[in-house]
Amino acid sequence: MTFAAPALDRPQPSHASTRVYEDGPHTIVEARGEIDLASSEELDRALREVAGRSSGRVIVDLSGVTFLDTAGLRTLVRARERMDEAGRWLVTRGASGQPRRLIEIGRAHYGMQV
């Protein structure tokens, strides 16, 4: 006899989105959903594009992020390094819960306004 695993035990697909828009002199990169290994590439691509075409402060809005893993954290740290090299500010805002804890535990908030 075989038993099927309940639907709740099956991994759910990662749902994430990234939107970029201008707000006065600032460029906003808004991330939503779960930022993990499967979805961090989309955020990285957006941050690379912004770094290459914009000037001024870049604000990464994490208020809609429900989960952040080390791949997502690495994406933020690398973006901060690129902005530092370009003489620009990278600011994160709105992180709460698990994403904020990971940023603090990973000490990624040093050198990055949170």
Explain what the structure shows.
The protein is globular, with a radius of gyration of 16 Å. The chain has helices at residues 40-53, 70-85, 97-105; strands at residues 16-23, 26-35, 58-68, 90-93. With 114 residues, it is α/β, with parallel strands linked by helices. It is 34% helix and 29% strand. The chain starts with 15 loop residues before the first strand and ends in a 9-residue tail after the last helix. The chain has a 4-stranded mixed sheet with strand order 1-2-3-4.
Q: Widest sheet: strand order? A: 1-2-3-4
Would you identify the regions where 5 or more consecutive residues have pLDDT less than 50? 1-12
Assess the beta-strand content as a share of residues.
25-35%
List the helices and strands in order: EEHEHEH
Summarize the structure in short.
The chain is built from three helices and four strands; from the N terminus they run ββαβαβα. With 114 residues, it is an alpha/beta fold. Helix 1 (40-53) packs parallel to helix 2 (70-85).
List keywords for this structure.
about 110 residues; alpha/beta
Q: Topology, please?
A:
Elements: E1 16-23, E2 26-35, H1 40-53, E3 58-68, H2 70-85, E4 90-93, H3 97-105
Parallel strand pairs: 2-3, 3-4
Antiparallel strand pairs: 1-2
